[in-house]
Amino acid sequence: MKNKIDYSSDWNLDPAPESIGHIKLKKKYDLFIGGKWVKPKSGKYFATINPATEEKIADVAEAGKADVDAAVKAAKKAYDTVWSKLSGKERGKYIYRIARLIQEKAREFSVIESLDSGKVIRESRDIDIPLAAAHFFYYAGWANKLEYAFPNRQPKSLGVAAQITPWNFPMLMIAWKIAPALAAGNTVVLKPAETTSLTALKLAEVIQEAGLPDGVVNIVTGYGKTGAMMVDHKDVAKVAFTGSTGVGKIIMKSIAGTNKKSTMELGGKAANIIFEDAPIDQAVEGIINGIYFNQGHVCCAGSRLFVQESVYDVVLRKLKDRMESLYVGDPMDKNTDIGAINSKKQLDVINEYIKIGKAEGAAIYQPKCTLPKKGYWCKPTLFTNVAQSNRIAQEEIFGPVLAIQTFRTVDEVITKANNTPYGLSAGVWTDKGSKIFNLTSQLKAGVVWANTYNKFDPTSPFGGYKESGHGREGGLHGLEPYLKFD
Amino acid sequence: MTEKDYRLSPRVDQVGIQDRVDRITKRSVKNRAKRKGLYMALNMIDLTTLEGADTEFKIKQLCYKAQHLHDSFLGLPTTAAVCVYPNFVKTAVQEVKGSGVKVASVATAFPSGQSSLEIKLLDTKIALDNGAHEVDMVISRGKFHSGEYNFVHDEIAAIKEACGKARLKVILETGELGTFDKVRRASDIAMDAGADFIKTSTGKISPAATLPVTLVMLEAIKDYYYETGKMIGMKPAGGISNSKLALQYLLMVKETLGGKWLSNEWFRFGASSLANDVLMQIMKQESGNYQSKDYFSKD
């Protein structure tokens, strides 16, 4: 294309690495059960590595059946003897204390998060950790106001909540789970994802420091097997899971016929819709933020882009140009926009989908950026010439891969956007308010962003339609799954 | 040929602009990149004095400073230009002769622009006859708000014609335009009418230049370049007084328009006090310590 913007320059930023000397990490982590660090009865440990360097950071315990039993027992005991008897006001004090401690240690948390997960320090510093603290603050406020939150419904806590969190926003998802559970009066057994256990274990230290009664929060580490033992445990009253739709289905099958309540926050394949009357430059920024935020490891990522045909050329041109100015590389560098893929396993999945996209006849585009030699990396990628029936347009890739289609009319794009088994989120870009309201009411998605994308707030509920899950996290709605009503 | 309807200029989303600016202000410019950026910034300054109290001596001092920013330190660039009222152009041209520093003159009934085209043309002619290399004109904001876009366009075109080879900077006075949509519209009009540069502000109205408004204008320049292949320069003016902010502007230019725009041919700062702060930062980089402000001459 003529008149191309050339983003190369002889003025280039020098490395601006975040210092990591101040963080305190142990070489080996045990399980956090009943307020104490205990060695796993399984005797097993596994390594957690830095995906940007492939170097081991620490060893983490793998909880077996006996360990999960001990954790649930500790949680049950804490629930029966302490936590369920405590007033909302007192529960709130503990949660506020946790929130403040997270804020105080925010820098340490964000550095550990970036080391362990590969996400860029700018995001862990400015989004993940501050939002995690904000969730604790927000739900601390609800702890003594449950009767007002649900007037005339006599809200009561459930008991022990088994919570399983994903690797894409490790600390933030833990906050989404623990904060409302505690505010509602439940106790917790939580398992972080196996590739990103460290911030959860750091949080255990904060919980100790906050003086939370022993056993109110128990953190066990391990793989999917450990999670399954938690879900199946007879003393668990509530299961909260964030992860893939595949695993979500397994969990739902295993708790079918029991009394266990559940919240499932699963996959997505969101439509990000650009109309011809949109503010184009900001929409392009929104496309970038929608799909390349956190390397595309985002369940609500705007992975299907729909562009109205009349502005397709200009949007594509600007998008490609903008991709050239993204910094890809060291997650610890404050200027990096796109960091490392979380694991080798996930990189293989993404590369497989890129292969599928090419085989399906879609046209691939990647910017010129160079990638580090060690570690797991994927260039920001987009596919054009995509059909609705392509697998890259239907299946969740969970990586920095965008599938672009065009549309002509509003009705057409609504049909296409809803034509997916998922229904977690969507984006609408237009200067016309009435069009926004028309789409928000017709899109089958839990969250619809208008003229922005990937914005989160503790007061705003989040969750999916269809195979994206059920139950809401965040906001007043996020309390309800942790309560029963007379 | 049908006339272009500037009401159809691309829309701008304020929240999105602010988000993008926030990303840029979080970038960290260190070491060599910082030094190079600071030198670049110095060399992009239009050292400005536009006061009712300006005198020949004040102008001479300004011109000397433009060429000798801090002589005790070797290897510093000059500023790009000095920017003065038309009646001081002759003096300024003499003072900067042979140094490569340009003389920019404000014109067209600066700063309000509330006058007839005849006066504005004459104002411009006086500046040019006295040897101005560049003309900084103001648009008729009143006419713009009345929706008389053709009037605004034709006025700019007439001044451009009068400028001949002198480069024309068109001041939109964004602080009076109200919305980013209007800033975008005014940018499009100015570029279509022949502006070589678009410039945010006179410095007489608050707010003057801001990062968000500059981003809106840079995006207009980008679209114009896509469409025509013609490069248009950008000059934020007023309110840019520290190095950190200056570097953020430069990063914004780099990430919006690319490296080609990073020279004083295509980017300028309209500023009076920025130079000293940049000098202080350069000294800090050299010596590791901040020096007293009094080590740097004010004028």
Explain the overall architecture.
Chain A has 486 residues and is α/β, with parallel strands linked by helices. Chain A folds into 2 domains: 28-266 and 466-485, 3-Layer(aba) Sandwich (Aldehyde Dehydrogenase, Chain A, domain 1); 271-450, 3-Layer(aba) Sandwich (Aldehyde Dehydrogenase, Chain A, domain 2), CATH 3.40.309.10. Chain A contains 15 helices and 20 strands. Chain A has helices at 65-81, 88-104, 106-117, 121-142, 146-149, 170-183, 198-209, 224-232, 245-255, 280-292, 312-324, 344-359, 391-394, 410-418, 433-442, and strands at residues 28-29, 31-33, 36-38, 45-50, 55-61, 155-157, 160-164, 187-191, 217-219, 236-242, 261-265, 271-274, 304-308, 363-365, 381-384, 401-407, 425-429, 447-450, 469-470, 483-485. In chain A, the strands form 5 sheets. In chain A, strands 14-15-16-13-12-17-18 form a 7-stranded mixed sheet, with helices on both faces. A 6-stranded mixed sheet of chain A has the order 9-8-7-10-11-19, with helices on both faces. The longest helix of chain A has 22 residues, at 121-142. Chain B has a single domain (7-295), classed as TIM Barrel (Alpha-Beta Barrel), CATH 3.20.20.70. Chain B starts with 13 loop residues before the first helix and ends in a 12-residue tail after the last helix. The mean pLDDT of chain B is 96. The A-B interface holds A 2-3, 5-16, 122, 126, 277-283, 285-286, 289, 314, 317, 325, 334-335, 431, 451-452 and B 10-13, 15-17, 19-20, 26-34, 36-37, 40, 219, 222, 225-229, 250, 254-255, 257-260, 262.
